[in-house]
Automatic annotation (TrEMBL):
This is Alkylated DNA repair dioxygenase AlkB. The keyword Transit peptide does not apply. Keywords: Dioxygenase, DNA damage, DNA repair, Iron, Magnesium, Metal-binding, Oxidoreductase. GO terms for molecular function: catalytic activity, acting on DNA; demethylase activity; dioxygenase activity; hydrolase activity; metal ion binding; oxidoreductase activity, acting on paired donors, with incorporation or reduction of molecular oxygen.
């Protein structure tokens, strides 16, 4: 199964529901207009406090292959890959994006993880957003700005179940239902020439 390219016009109320076994995706190819997307992308590059974090692997520190930042409410610290991230306070731009995504998702978010993929060499490995502090069946709102990158999913228990989406500039992907407990996802490296991309994943952290 795969979904490639734009299926709808410039209307952020249009979405495609993708019912997977043990999970649901909702994809808005043009959640933000091209003009807004360009402006937001440049502002995030310039104003976010980007860092290249590291994790402990095989007895040594290994740098994540991308830049990262964590913003949110004061009580929304988040732990993954052996690190605990304390949030920076919301900016006006991030608050605006959060509120628009929350309205589409029908839920609230108190934090956002930003990943800055500087080129095709930057990537995200296989993982699921299933940490205990996210609660049961978390809703994850994934906003994509900049270059289009492949987003791959694979079922944890059925190796033949896979899915792929090309996440476009200004798009929103909502991950719902049991998806995080049954599916993993990744953004692979690519040898093709590709520009920079910023991904924002909004979530609710339970204290």
């Amino acid at each position: 199964m795969s979904l490639q390219g734009s299926l709808f016009g410039q209307d952020n109320n249009h979405k495609q529901e993708i019912n997977l076994e043990n999970g649901l995706l909702e994809y808005y190819p043009h959640f933000f207009t091209p003009t807004d997307s360009d402006r937001i992308f440049q502002q995030l590059i310039a104003t976010i406090t980007w860092k290249q974090e590291s994790m402990r692997m095989y007895g040594r520190e290994v740098l994540f292959p991308r830049l990262m930042a964590w913003y949110g409410d004061a009580n929304s610290s988040y732990s993954f890959s052996g690190n605990t991230f304390k949030p920076l306070p919301w900016t006006a731009e991030l608050t605006m994006i959060r509120d628009r995504v929350a309205m589409a998702a029908g839920t609230t978010f108190n934090s956002v993880l930003l990943n800055y993929y500087r080129s095709g060499n930057d990537s995200m490995g296989w993982h699921a957003d299933d940490e205990p502090e996210l609660g049961k069946n978390p809703v994850i709102g994934s906003v994509n700005m900049g270059a289009t990158r492949r987003f791959l999913l694979r079922h944890r228990y059925h190796q033949d179940l896979k899915y792929e989406i090309a996440l476009e500039h200004g798009s929103l992907l909502l991950m719902k239902g049991e998806l995080q407990h049954f599916w993993e996802h990744q953004v692979p490296k690519t040898a093709k020439p590709v520009g920079p991309r910023i991904n924002l994943t909004f979530r609710y952290i339970y204290p």
